[in-house]
Each structure stands twice: as structure tokens, then as C-alpha cells.
Design a protein that fits this description.
Spore Coat Polysaccharide Biosynthesis Protein SpsA, Chain A; 124 residues; alpha/beta; 4 strands
């Protein structure tokens, strides 16, 4: 079964922000989705950190910073899944919410979905 979702993250010197994000994504079932990280030429150990914490990630390494939007566009061009979720490196994701978000697309009138955003001090 092919995964339905690509969770795509653009990084640039983001190592200090990635623990919670990658920690949650390491439990993403392969049948549900894949993780792609596009790194904009980080110099702070981000690449080694990603490889250690999430070795199954599709890691795209760029020699220098080409910008957030352009890096995402490169990732979009590589996507083979039906859906793409852009995700920031400093946001912790509740992967348990993904099946429900994806199920929303069964309604043809739905073009986009967004999960609930909690501030760190509000996390249930």
C-alpha cells in the first residue's frame, strides 16, 4: 500500500527545535505517510541530528539556503503521495490526528484542512 501523505519540513540551522517534531514523526506509520526534510545548508548539526533521530526520513540536502518557499517547492516537485502537509521544525505534531484530517478529504467540497494549534502551555 502506498502512503497517502508526505509530511514536509524545511530546516535551516534548526537542530535545537527538532526534538519534539522528529520524536513524534518517528512513530508515523509508513502506510499512512512519509517524512521529507529539505535542509537549506544547515551548519549547526541539523543533518546529523535528523539522520540519527529519523533515519527513515527522505532527506534532501541543499548546499546553501535557497529560502523557505523555494525549498518547499523543490519538495513538492518530488512528491508522489496524494497529500502533502507542510510542517515547521519547531512544532510538535499529534500524529494521532492525521487519519481524521485525511478522512476530511473524502468530502469533495474539502480542499484544505488544518489541525488545532495549541501553545506550549496549553497542550492537553
Amino acid at each position: 500500500m502506498n502512503p497517502k501523505l508526505t509530511v514536509q519540513i524545511v530546516t535551516w540551522n534548526s537542530q535545537k527545535h527538532l526534538s519534539k517534531t522528529l520524536g513524534a514523526l518517528k512513530d508515523l506509520p509508513q502506510a499512512l505517510g512519509v517524512v521529507r526534510v529539505i535542509d537549506n545548508g544547515s551548519q549547526d548539526g541539523t543533518l546529523a541530528f535528523i539522520k540519527k533521530l529519523l533515519p527513515q526520513a527522505d532527506l534532501v540536502t541543499l548546499p546553501h539556503n535557497i529560502g523557505f518557499a523555494r525549498a518547499h517547492n523543490l519538495g513538492f516537485a518530488k512528491c508522489t503521495t496524494e497529500f502533502v502537509m507542510t510542517h515547521d521544525p519547531d512544532v510538535a505534531l499529534d500524529i494521532g490526528s492525521l487519519p481524521e484530517l485525511l478522512a476530511s478529504f473524502e468530502d469533495e467540497a474539502v480542499a484544505a484542512v488544518q489541525g488545532k494549534l495549541y501553545r506550549a502551555q496549553q497542550v492537553p
